[in-house]
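Weekly sync, protein design subgroup
Attendees: M.S., D.O., the rotation student, P.L. (late)

Item 1: inverse folding check
M.S. brought a backbone from last month's batch and wanted to see whether the design step gives back something sensible before we order anything. D.O. pointed out we never logged the input encoding, so this time it goes straight into the notes. Structure tokens as presented (388 positions):
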């Protein structure tokens, strides 16, 4: 970043720490120059998965996903994943999830009018190799919109959404919970939108943690707010518990960790600088705990475009102002940590790229950050989360 004169001195003295030294790149295969590598990421323990949905390995936009394993302080490639029926235009790697030695990957494409067959693929380790063990199709034959828009894994449960269609087809989106039993994945429950279509179309972001599921619903209009629907498990049934409304964002990203919910609101804040709304479950209700904002907000900065929530730490991506320019050209990741005096911004992670922070994932004291944009080389960065 180019900062000069008094303003640069002010930023050095008063701005939060900005750094790249703690970031390390995962080794990107040479064949993935413009494959959207880094558009989806997941990290769990010493494993990481990175999606490359534009990879042309089995034809144009067939997609792929890459597994990495940490050995000491180094990440090494541990396998390339592709579905058994790899095909052109499937966009395999659009979303990825990783939990307890199991990987879920979506092959997702949108459609208008005529449905296409999207799937979610499950991979597990067998004989030291990652092998495809299941292929999951839409339970309602895409009647609620394109299947596999978002997904998450939590033990023996898998959450997959269909994306509602705001163009007038009437598809409002759904959530589907699958449970693995006796080696097979079966549909456990279907989650309907609690609100009419005009309040927002369900399904473009979703997360599952323990007995809770959160799915966002966007109106996909500039001035009309969306919502987040929360579902709670009772045995093998999932019931709508409550909805968080008035979320200002074209795309609304969500993450759950225990009794906390983080919701990105990239069109919220002063002059649309963006915010991230943090809620906590207590006394049988989800209530606001705080609102995260950057110390140096930037008008139309899209802060909250992507969010990730860990134990007492949150990552939020947004644009950072480049002085002497009138456009947003640099995206950064803000690190917030909870201390006895509340949530505070601790650091800003910055590699000087507009696509940095396109995907976020946290596991304990480590994070994975994707950098991806159409037609550009992608990247995935590992970041240790240091406590204050």
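Designed sequence read out in the meeting:
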């Amino acid at each position: 970043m180019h900062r000069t004169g008094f303003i640069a001195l002010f930023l050095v003295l008063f701005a939060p720490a900005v750094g790249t030294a703690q970031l390390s790149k995962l080794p990107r295969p040479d064949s993935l120059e413009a494959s959207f590598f880094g558009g989806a990421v997941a990290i769990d323990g010493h494993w990481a998965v990175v999606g490359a949905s534009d990879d042309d390995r089995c034809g144009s936009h067939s997609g792929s996903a890459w597994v990495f394993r940490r050995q000491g302080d180094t990440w090494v490639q541990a396998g390339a994943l592709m579905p058994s029926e790899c095909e052109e235009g499937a966009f395999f790697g659009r979303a990825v999830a990783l939990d307890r030695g199991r990987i879920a990957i979506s092959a997702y494409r949108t459609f208008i009018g005529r449905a296409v067959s999207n799937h979610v693929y499950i991979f597990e380790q067998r004989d030291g190799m990652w092998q495809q063990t299941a292929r999951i199709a839409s339970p309602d034959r895409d009647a609620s919109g394109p299947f596999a828009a978002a997904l998450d894994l939590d033990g023996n449960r898998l959450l997959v959404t269909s994306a509602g269609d705001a163009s007038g087809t009437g598809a409002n989106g759904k959530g589907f919970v699958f449970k693995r039993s006796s080696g097979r994945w079966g549909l456990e429950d279907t989650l309907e939108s609690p609100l009419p279509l005009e309040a927002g179309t369900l399904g473009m972001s979703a997360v599952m943690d323990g007995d809770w599921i959160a799915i966002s619903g966007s109106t996909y209009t500039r001035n009309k707010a969306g919502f987040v629907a929360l579902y709670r498990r009772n045995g093998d049934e999932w019931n709508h518990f409550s909805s968080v409304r008035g979320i200002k964002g074209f795309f609304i990203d969500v993450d759950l960790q225990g009794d906390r919910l983080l919701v990105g609101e990239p069109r919220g804040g002063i002059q649309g600088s963006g915010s991230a709304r943090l809620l906590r479950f207590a006394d049988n209700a989800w209530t606001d705990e705080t609102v995260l904002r950057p110390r140096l907000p930037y008008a139309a900065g899209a802060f909250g475009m992507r969010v990730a929530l860990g134990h007492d730490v949150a990552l939020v991506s947004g644009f950072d102002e480049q002085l002497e320019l009138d456009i947003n050209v640099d995206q950064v990741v803000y690190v917030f940590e909870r201390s006895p005096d509340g949530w505070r911004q601790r650091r800003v992670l910055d590699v000087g790229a507009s696509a940095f922070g396109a995907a976020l994932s946290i596991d304990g004291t480590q994070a994975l950050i994707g950098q991806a944009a159409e037609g550009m080389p992608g990247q995935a960065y590992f970041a240790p989360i240091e406590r204050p």
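Discussion: The two ends are 26 Å apart (CA to CA). The chain has one domain: 23-263+275-285+350-383.
Action: P.L. to compare against the previous round before Friday.
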